[in-house]
Design a protein that fits this description.
The protein is α+β, with helices and mostly antiparallel strands and 353 residues long. It has helices at residues 2-12, 16-22, 40-51, 111-123, 150-168, 187-191, 234-253, 312-324, 335-340; strands at residues 63-65, 68-80, 87-92, 98-101, 130-133, 180-185, 199-211, 217-227, 284-289.
């Protein structure tokens, strides 16, 4: 879709970002529902400023360094911001600390750190006074780690429990030896939400170099600006977004599932033969965000697990067109596909009728 929009911008003589800004919807184009918040335009404006988009000559196939053709491209990103019913328990301990129990899962995304910060904020204490216990089904049902819904769902349950607990704690009164425990369940709260379009958004920018002799593509730099609700932990959030962008590079340039037509099996059924991006493929990457609070969420979180990859491959594909003057509609952008998609790789600009 984002490659098609880039082509539409070219055909109409409109800047790709300006085309998107002119067509920003007031409500969901299909559902007709209002957006909880929609800051895609802010992502594009901030990204264009930081990437230097205003200096870009829109004509393809003009920038060259030796045998390398250079191009830049952009694409929008959107991913649903959902939440699922979850339960959480918080115990106020006699020593003044708090123990949070929730059946969350940390798959390497920093859930423990994020939930500790969320709980400390909701309890009006410091992270050192909070212990988070996760990964035990005895704690009650909770959302899985997936769909960019984990942190939002868990944070909602923890915040609700924290509010209830603070109401039960009486200043100046000692906590009993076995503590005070409250349990939350967000099923009713989520069911009462008004119907809206809820998404994380982003704008991806990329600069590529294309070798006219070999068809090799090198990504020189990428910038992603995102509107993903409240960012709980900037350090781990930036790591997730950069990881998604790296995955987008792999999707655009390397990853391909090829089947044997005789057996129906994959030719490369494991990671030993399936080509993915390595450190050598990762250029200068930068990820940042704009303010984007979700007023319907008690914590203001949306989700960052997937939004980093969305739009990355399209931005790279649009940059390859800008470098070579040739459109590609199949991924990955293998060298053989670049070489056989003449005349663009010769540095000739696209011919117009």
């Amino acid at each position: 879709m984002e490659v098609a929009l880039d082509e539409l911008a070219e055909r109409t003589g409109t800047d790709p970002i300006e085309l998107r800004l002119r067509n920003e919807p007031d409500a969901g184009p299909v559902s007709g529902l209002p957006f909880s918040s929609r800051n895609l335009a802010a992502c594009f404006r901030e990204g264009a400023r930081r990437f230097g988009w205003q200096d870009r000559d829109p004509r393809p196939g003009l920038r060259r360094e030796g045998r390398w053709l250079l191009g830049t491209g952009t694409a929008a990103a959107s991913f649903g911001a959902g939440a699922a019913p979850s339960t959480a328990q918080i115990t106020a301990e006699p020593d003044g600390s708090f123990t949070v129990r929730i059946a969350a899962a940390d798959i390497g995304t920093g859930a423990r750190t994020a939930l500790t910060l969320i709980a400390a904020d909701a309890l009006d204490t410091t992270p050192e006074h909070v212990r988070v216990r996760i990964g035990d089904s005895d704690f009650g049902p909770a959302m899985i780690a997936g769909g960019s819904m984990g942190t939002r769902s868990w944070a909602w349950a923890i915040t609700a429990a924290a509010q209830d607990l603070r109401e039960r704690l009486i200043p100046g009164t000692a906590v009993p030896p076995d503590g005070i425990t409250v349990r939350s369940d967000t099923t009713a709260a989520l069911g009462a939400l008004s119907r809206k379009e809820r998404h994380s958004f982003g704008a991806q920018f990329a600069e590529v170099a294309v070798d006219t002799a070999t068809g090799e593509i090198r990504v020189r730099r990428m910038l992603g600006i995102f509107a993903a609700g409240r960012i709980v932990n900037p350090l781990t959030a930036r790591g997730q977004l950069l990881g998604g962008m790296t995955w987008g590079i792999s999707m655009a340039l390397h990853e391909e599932a090829v089947r044997d037509h005789h057996t129906g099996a994959h030719y490369a059924p494991d990671l030993a033969g399936y080509h993915v991006a390595t450190h050598a493929d990762v250029p200068h990457l930068e990820a940042d965000w704009v303010d984007d609070h979700d007023p319907d969420d008690p914590v203001g979180i949306k989700g960052i697990g997937e939004i980093g990859i969305v739009g990355a491959a399209a931005a790279l594909t649009n940059a390859v067109w800008h470098a070579t003057g040739t459109r590609h509609r199949d991924l990955p952008l293998r060298p053989d596909r670049i070489l056989t998609a003449a005349p663009g790789t010769k540095g000739e600009p696209t011919k117009r009728a």
